[in-house]
Design brief:
This protein is of the alpha+beta class. The chain folds into 2 domains: 166 residues, Ribosomal Protein S5, domain 2; 114 residues, GHMP kinase, C-terminal domain (Alpha-Beta Plaits), CATH 3.30.70. The protein is built from 10 helices and 13 strands. α7 packs across α8. The radius of gyration is 19 Å and the shape is globular.
Length: 288
């Protein structure tokens, strides 16, 4: 069984304050993309979980794919095992959800393969134990998020294509959120202008931005350089805590024309924004 693990962008990221438990209250708009990693699943007769991480230098016990599989196996009481192969396309430390999406696809895929029968709500609760961004990938919808990212409201965004640049450096999310210079006092905004679940384009343009961007660009000059290069062609911003930056275009062709001009020291890709996860679409095909 082969399933996608899609990337995400944070079209909006506002940090409202720090909680007593060290997490941050935030507001963000998760935009799912039609591009990402792929995971291959094969059931095993024993209860062993093995992972081919595609050459990633991560200890097995720290690998989110392995941890997600172990967690589902334990919580569901499943006696089966699995061999999982990661086909990695998304950069580590890029702010586009690679590890979180891989974990979510593992929960969804093994829930299907092992016939665990857990509903999405239960899988999302398991995902939250692995990371704040995992539940949005489990639920599989572009969404407005509050709290630490776990309070999700599905929304539809206007159809756009995104050029995502990968500056070639890895950003530590923990280091960014632990830095005293990070903006933590943004005013909360109200999700408004929903017409049949579709976000109003003018509202989206007005509130787009990322409270992590100023600090991250200060710490990583190459990220600032990549964003400033992309800014020549369209409004560009950081996603998550970085390192990737992105801009929206009306068509894949328009985004591709800019990608073709990208300086060699950076890489990038073009992807369409989607309101339903490609993982969920593939699982629906398998269920029929």
């Amino acid at each position: 069984m082969l399933l996608p693990a899609p990337a995400k962008l944070n079209l909006i990221l506002r940090i409202l304050g720090r909680r007593d438990d060290g997490y941050h209250e935030l507001q963000t708009l998760f935009q799912l993309l039609d591009f990402g990693d792929q995971l291959e699943f094969e059931s095993r007769d024993d209860n062993v979980i093995s992972v081919d991480a595609g050459g990633l230098d991560i200890p097995l016990q720290d690998n989110l794919i392995y941890r997600a599989a172990q967690l589902l196996q334990r919580e569901s009481g499943c006696a089966s095992g699995a061999h999982i192969v990661l086909h990695k396309r998304l950069p580590q430390g890029g702010g586009i959800g690679g590890g979180s999406s891989d974990a979510a696809t593992t929960l969804l895929g093994l829930n299907h393969l092992w016939r665990c029968g857990l509903p999405l709500g239960a899988l999302a609760a398991l995902g939250r134990q692995l990371g704040a961004d995992v539940p949005v990938f489990v639920r599989g919808r572009t969404a407005w998020a509050e709290g630490i990212g776990e309070k999700l409201q599905p929304v539809n965004t206007p159809q756009r294509h995104y050029l995502v640049l990968v500056p070639g450096c890895s950003v530590s999310t923990a280091a960014v959120f632990g830095d005293p210079r990070l903006t933590r006092d943004s005013t909360a905004i109200t999700l408004a202008h929903l017409r049949g679940g579709l976000l109003d384009s003018e509202w989206l343009e007005q509130h787009s931005g990322n409270d992590c961007q100023a600090l991250v660009e200060r710490l990583y000059p190459d990220i600032r350089a990549a964003r400033e290069w992309l800014q020549q062609f369209a409004r560009a911003q950081l996603t998550g805590t970085g390192a990737c930056v992105f801009a929206a275009f009306d068509s894949a062709q328009a985004a591709g024309e800019i990608l073709a001009r990208l300086p060699q020291r950076w890489s990038g890709f073009v992807a369409a924004g989607v309101n339903e996860s490609p993982t969920h679409r593939e699982l629906a095909k398998l269920a029929t």
